[in-house]
Specification:
288 residues, mainly beta, Jelly Rolls, eight-stranded antiparallel β-sheet, seven-stranded antiparallel β-sheet, 2 helices, 25 strands, 51% strand
Length: 288
């Protein structure tokens, strides 16, 4: 078998619409450095409505946002303001602590929009989990694109198929967005320690095993697999080096030690995280 685990999503409401969450899961905490995986939408906002994720904190991770449709306005405590559009990449290193919000841009809110995308958390290596926060935006045109008959692969992070993404990351990383025509196929080589395939839409088989939309297949290590599309398909291939130890996850915090999470909880409840310029709201610390 080419598939080690086949993960199914559970749905949550975030920022006014439903998301499918695949990681962390009960059998698999992470695939490579990816410790959190949310599929947002697709959702349609009527004119005057939009996405509103109020300011909230992070530690010990980097957020990676990639859109298929729509626009999101990112604003953070470092003073960055950036609209992300389809095919772009937003990378925010939380390190020892950052605050950010994600909203629908005002002009888009006025007209309404369809929003659809993926947000992942990249667990920072232990030596970097208290690094200085930072934010980087990379437009779609800056990302390597591999095109073969019926297949288009965009390298979001790390290395794949002889190409290297310009996005700064940590360690050996694999993150590729694929678009396939019906009948097309491609191989995923065994040159990363951990790998997964997420089916965002369409229909595929991995070495003859069918996936349903919303499922994440964690692949057997050391095996080259073939992905075949039965219809027009969107998917993501993700993975890389294994985590350098287990992680604790609580709310928006990721850490190798519980005391780091407890300290972050106290900082947020006491207003110790930096504020986001231009924002007056925030998400309170959960009671649980």
């Amino acid at each position: 078998m080419s598939i080690l685990h086949l993960l199914k999503p559970h749905e949550k409401d975030i920022g006014g619409f439903s998301v499918k969450r695949l990681l962390p899961s009960l059998p698999v905490q992470a695939v490579g450095p990816f410790i959190f995986f949310d599929h947002m939408g697709p959702a349609v906002f009527a004119p005057g409505q939009g996405m509103d994720v109020r300011p909230h904190p992070h530690i010990g991770l980097a957020t990676v946002t990639y859109l298929y449709e729509g626009e999101i306005f990112h604003r953070d405590s470092l003073g960055n303001e950036q609209v992300i559009r389809p095919g772009d990449v937003n990378w925010m290193t939380a390190g020892h602590g950052v605050t950010h919000s994600e909203r629908t841009p005002d002009d888009v809110r006025a007209s309404g929009q369809r929003i659809h995308g993926i947000q992942t958390w990249f667990a920072l290596p232990m030596k970097d989990e208290q690094a200085e926060p930072g934010f980087w935006h990379h437009p779609a045109a800056s990302l390597p694109l591999i095109i073969t008959p019926g297949v288009q692969l965009r390298v979001i992070l790390g290395r794949a198929y002889g190409q290297l993404s310009p996005v700064h990351t940590y360690g050996d990383t694999l993150y590729v967005a694929g678009e396939l025509e019906a009948g097309a196929q491609f191989e995923i080589p065994a040159d990363h320690a951990e790998r997964g395939v997420y089916l965002a839409s369409g229909a595929i088989e991995i070495d003859g095993v069918a996936l349903l939309p919303g499922q994440l297949a964690v692949l057997q290590p050391g095996v080259t697999v073939t992905v075949s599309a039965q219809q027009e398909t969107r998917l993501l291939v993700l993975g890389g080096e294994p985590l350098d130890g287990p992680r604790f996850i609580w709310w928006n915090f990721v850490a190798s030690r519980r005391e780091l999470i407890e300290a972050a909880k106290q900082r947020w409840s006491e207003g110790g995280f930096p504020a986001v310029p231009g924002e007056t709201e925030f998400i309170p610390l959960p009671a649980r």
